[in-house]
Amino acid sequence: MTSVDLSRTVLRAVRRAVDDGVLRVAVPERVVVTVPGAGGWGDYATNVALQLARPAGQPPLRVAELLRPRLVGLDGIDDVVVTGPGFLNMRLRDSVSADLVADVLRHGSRYGFAPSGAPGGSDGSSQVLLCPGDVRSVVVTDVVARLLRAQGAVVRARCPDGAPGGAWTDALRVDAALFRDDVPAGKSGPEHPVRVRRCSGDPLVLGRDAGRWALLHPAPQDRVRLGGEHLVQRESNPLFRVRYAHARARAVLRGGSDLGLRPLPGDTGAADAELLALLADHPRVLRRAADTRAPDRLTRHLVAVADASLPLLADVLPRGDEKPSAAHRARLALAEAAGAVLAGGLSLLGIDAPDHL
Is NADP tagged as a keyword (predicted)? Predict the structure, then answer.
């Protein structure tokens, strides 16, 4: 279950309370579901009771208590606890997290992609990206096209200044075919401009992977930094953390194989709730990054997945005389799922995900 799915479930509980006459409010279009904060409990939390309290004319705690019994048992929700001023904290059944990990493993690095053959748009026309010819715009356009294609779209690009070329397009692994057949203006429906702040330096000084990351990680309006911080093998470097987390995931899988330990999705405990929530949110992040033409959303998401993965990866395999258990197999499956998401995300960014680092 993703956070989007759970948001719909919460809305259904609100609708039931309204239908039962215990709440007199307009059902909101959406509610926010997040990982519990400090003092929270369970796998997910929502502030919907605080959101509805004023229009309902009731205290948030009362609204939360009215919604609680209507949430328990819905779509794999095992229990609900009210904390603080009226936050609803939800614990999912173990099978739900196991199903999520199994879903990631089933799709591998293509988890979050649209099903093969999905239509690219309601009118069947190509999406045309209008791209200036500077290096950052071209690399961002290249990744936006990858993201859109992963969602089933047919994508072409048009550069008013002519198709880009030169050593930097090859060195930065830009898909030349995206620009090769220049699209005549107005021939394929509305154009979607890719707007980013231009890069004033030469990203080739960083090499392909670090150069692409330097161009893609900042928000569109932010300045690109091309310093050596993108090359250092330290925790201060977000790209290093992402690739290191992937390499560590591959390493624990190799270690598990040496021990005859097979990944098997199952309950990994509440400590991994943040990582599970991030994995569940990955399809939404890909869709949002594609729709908004903002690859930096994906880069930040990958950093969050890496940071949530690293504590798990240090405690996956049995230690000393400890015998392999179902918990070890479940953690190994979660590690494999995290590695798959990191590999798939880096691939969409055009960046290698090495097994050894």
Answer: no
Could you tell me if 172 and 192 are in contact, meaning their C-beta atoms sit under 8 angstroms apart?
A: no
Determine the Cα–Cα distance for residues 357 and 350; give it in Å rounded to an integer.
18
Does residue 120 lie in a domain region?
no
Helical (H) or strand (E) element with 243:
helix 238-258
Is 275 within 8 Å of 309 (Cβ atoms)?
Answer: yes
Distance from C-alpha of 75 to C-alpha of 3, rounded to nearest angstrom: 12
Does residue 33 lie within any of the structural domains?
yes
Whether 134 is covered by a domain: the verdict is yes
b (16+ CB within 10 A) / e for 62-87: bbbebbbebbeeebbbeebbbbbebb
Lookup result for tokens 């690859």 = 295
Q: Is residue 220 part of a domain?
A: no
Over residues 112-150, the pLDDT tens digits come to 998 864 544 433 457 889 988 889 999 999 999 999 999
Give the span between the Cα atoms of 230 and 299, in whole angstroms: 14
343 and 247 in contact (C-beta within 8 Å)? no
CATH number for 295: 1.10.730.10
Tell me 350's DSSP state.
T
- Total of domains in the chain: 3
Stated pTM of the model: 0.75
Q: How far apart are CA 182 and CA 205, in angstroms?
A: 29
